[in-house]
Amino acid sequence: MHRLASSARVILSGAKDRVGGPLRLRCGGVVRVLALTLTFAAAPGLTAADLAAQAKPDSARNPLAGRIRGSAAAPVTVYEMSDFQCPFCRTFALNTFPQIDSLYIATGKVRWAFVNFPLTSVHDNALAAAEVGLCAARQNAFWRVHDLLYQHQDVWAPLKQPEAFFLTLADSAKISRPALLACVQSPATRETLRQEAEGATRSGANSTPSFYMEGGLLTGAQPMPIFRQVLDSIIREKTRKAPGPPGASP
């Protein structure tokens, strides 16, 4: 399957951090949460408006079309930046995300968007997997392929040429092979992935998985209790009623 051009690799391996040094990309990460006070860092370059613009319903212009779960009216939107070859991302996707989906996304509290952040310096097949996921979204099958990629990560990750195995996943997801191959070979697919990699680095992410939410960055495959603390705190803040004018009836 067609691989991304070297320009995407330059974005991921040559990014700079805020003090000018090399951005060390890694799979995994941690954040400390004390009680219900969020201690994640503010994202330096990517704003909520930037991300919201990408998540508009118009699928013809929306690069995240097909990779969003939940109601557009949800008070909180989370942007997950992940690498399909990252084992920490796999742990999150298979163990924690189903709980978030059930408790927060399906109940209308959170809207969730998946942003590709393949770490090519450490994962040889991450770009090819990102292409497959992105092109599955074009056939409205992203989340099925998302699950299959993570479920079978231990099979395709060590392969020298994973393309044939990816096609078997396409068959399992019941999507068109010709359409998938045409999408993977399209320059537009490469450009979309390049832009997503740039956006992830602008958000301050330098590890996977990372989660951009309401101006902050939560990093690492945190367990469900941590996500519960963070999400509940943000939801309470976002849905808190503004105080009425002096003398108004309760």
Care to describe what's here?
- It is built from ten helices and ten strands.
- The chain is an alpha+beta fold and 250 residues long.
- It has a single domain, classed as Glutaredoxin (3-Layer(aba) Sandwich).
- It has a six-stranded mixed β-sheet with strand order 4-10-9-6-7-5. Strands 1-8 form a two-stranded parallel ribbon. Strands 2-3 form a two-stranded antiparallel sheet.
- A hairpin with a 2-residue loop joins β9 and β10.
- α3 crosses α10, α4 packs antiparallel against α5 and α4 packs across α8.
- The chain is globular.
Work out the count of structural domains: 1
Question: Biggest β-sheet: count, sense, barrel?
Answer: 6 strands, mixed
How many β-strands, per DSSP? Answer: 10
How many distinct helices? 10
Low-confidence segments: 1-24, 30-50
What is the highest CATH level, the class?
Answer: Alpha Beta
Tell me the Rg in angstroms.
18 Å
CATH architecture annotation: 3-Layer(aba) Sandwich
CATH homologous superfamily identity: Glutaredoxin
Q: Share of helix among residues?
A: 40-55%
- CATH topology grouping: Glutaredoxin
Strand fraction band?
5-15%
Mean pLDDT score, rounded?
Answer: 79
Kindly report the spatial arrangement of strands forming the biggest sheet: 4-10-9-6-7-5
What is the first-to-last residue Cα distance?
63 Å
| Sheet/helix structural class | alpha+beta
List the helices and strands in order.
HEEEEHEEHEHHHHHHEEEH
Q: What is the approximate shape?
A: globular
